[in-house]
Predict the 3D structure of the following.
Amino acid sequence: MTNKTDSDRLGVYASISVSLSAIVSLATAILTPPISGPFCKGRCIDYPYTTILTRFPRDYYWMYPAIIMTVLFVILMVCVHHHASLEKKIFSQIGLSFSIISATALILDYFIQLSVIQPSIAKGESDGISILTQYNPHGLFIALEEIGYLMMSLAFIFIVPAFSKTLKIEKAIRVVLLISGLMTMVAFIFISLFYGINREYRFEVVVITINWTTLIISGILTGKMFMSKDQPYDYN
């Protein structure tokens, strides 16, 4: 039996915060319907996407909690790495590394939208905006989101061995993370094969839905795990 450590206590706060920020991000994104690409229902905008000034700031609100969520996810992964038994730390270290790659891509992606796209359009500086803006269904924004969330899914998969196979709460975490990671990989392969270069943001929508839902559920579960006063570290 082991007593709670600083990483356990931090893990509780990080877990709860990840879940809450993922809920806010998902809810805000759902309330922001697409105005371009394959899921646009009407009054869509087209290339070169320079008539988007009226979409500020409402279409960008969801990025703020998403940035916070991504930072908190890395903190949570650090706590899980400390939680892992010595022989399993190789897997948690790999998972943590993928989470850092994911966070780097996503935070850079969102910060560009908030700090470059908005002021550039407001000042009438539209050169190069079409390839960067989130409204381009096959632009740089979508590509960075896809690779960012793919790396997050790999983090989910590699962190699985860090949790016990015998403790009920940790078994549940393992199942959630493994299913999520595998679903993402299957979705990426299927959508890429079916749509080819016309994939646009279809996979992005799928992977965001899967990963944010996973962060909500796994955040709740890891929070319960870290809340335990005494945790028997059984990693058979």
Summary: The two ends are 15 Å apart (CA to CA). The mean pLDDT is 91. The CA atoms of residues 23 and 216 lie 7 Å apart. The helical segments are 6-30, 63-83, 89-122, 129-132, 140-159, 168-195, 202-227.
